[in-house]
Design goal:
Helices cover 93% and strands 0% of the residues. It has 2 helices and no strands.
Length: 89
């Protein structure tokens, strides 16, 4: 009976070794994926920064022109009118 117990214990140890090796391989692969994903995230942040700077430039250029000020004034007047009507005024 002790031979069967030792054999079963040996089998369990062998299975545990295979599982731990598989886990180690998955962790290594996940580490490589993580490095690639970090690189992609960096590129995405760089693109976002360029887009924000571009949009700020367009906004500044629009503010410096008279039509933008008129458009903002009309939008504010429209919103105030809608709020006044909603409140029963």
């Amino acid at each position: 009976m002790s031979n069967n117990t030792e054999s079963a214990a040996g089998d369990l140890v062998a299975v545990a070794d295979v599982v731990s090796q598989a886990d180690a391989g998955e962790h290594a692969l996940a580490g490589r994926r993580s490095l690639r994903e970090r690189g992609l995230a960096t590129v995405e942040y760089a693109i976002a920064v360029v887009l924000v700077i571009t949009m700020m430039g367009v906004l500044i250029a629009a503010i410096q022109q008279g039509w933008f000020s008129d458009a903002v004034q009309r939008v504010v007047e429209l919103l105030l009118g809608l709020i006044s009507k909603a409140l029963g005024g």
